Amino acid sequence: MVPLLLILLLALLLFGAGFAVKFLWLVAVVVLVFWLVGFVARGTHPSGGRHRWYRW
User: Which domain holds residue 33?
Assistant: First the structure.
């Protein structure tokens, strides 16, 4: 009985980790798309200088 519970617990942990990793990949792709759009769409600052769309 105990080995069966351990196997089920391990299966749940691996399923949860797989879901979390897939979710993090999706978040990374969305952030990359926003970064690329901001990089391409950057314009000039109203004062005439170049405008940086990021703060760092």
Answer: 1-41
